[in-house]
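pasting for ref
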Amino acid sequence: MEGVIDAPMRELLTRLGDYDRCVTEFIRVTDQRLPARVFRRLCPELNNDGRTATGVPVFVQLLGGDAAAMALNAVQAVTLGAPGIDINFGCPAKCVNRNDGGSVLLKEPERIGRIVAAVRDAIPADIPLSVKIRLGFADSAQLEQISSAVYQAGAGELCVHARTREDGYKPPAHWQDVQRVHPEAALPVVINGEIWTPHDAALAQQQSGCQDLMLGRGALSSPDLARRIRALQRGETPLPLPWLTLLPHILSQFNNTTAAHPKYIGCRLKQWLVYLRREYREAADLFARVKRLTDADAIRAAFDEHERALLRGETPAATG
């Protein structure tokens, strides 16, 4: 979720939802220790004891193929206040894979084990270490080897995106394949991938045998998805947050990203609206109003026009 679920988005999601933990966008590690400013830029929560304003812990996620450098940067993150470390072996981006990072390492289970062990040995025993993988690179033939390597190396948790690198983000997610990990690896396993609704979450849990969930794109489409999942588990009706209640938060996010990224005004807003359209029909109208705009004041005016149209009943105001 690089460039999408950043610190302001984590702040919003943990206010609206019911999340237990966040991870940062990945911090790219090559062959040296990164300066403190890099960690603080991607994880400003380090200035708040490693937590969002609502108190949700934020693990620092590292991505790289050099075991020694990964360990060195894990120590740096913990020294700066990270409450936990997450290692990303799941990113399918070709530019990342070409540079020895992300899911390309799934081809080498033993190497994954060496990286995880180096990080685990370098950081204090009381600092949690989680690992994110996919089912495999081209197929899931090495899933048992990969999960065993992660477990033997001392990780405390394994999150599995239930697709291969070759699958990318193409539906469906193969939740049932994760059952091959759950009995074998004596550590908590988290299911991820294609969880858009509370009912998806229940099905993913049932098919994978996992109790815990990681949400990514689903959280962007439905910012209160974790709250709705818990509501369904309690036997309640998991109604989504009304659009007019969410709209001021979307505007606030736009204002935050405009201040942080003045060269790319509106880019993250438009990216988010594409996800929101999956859950909210109203998001399509707002996207149509702002998609060609690059001026902050013009975009704010489009928000006002959109809200007025909703209140006049000129824009569909029903959730999908």
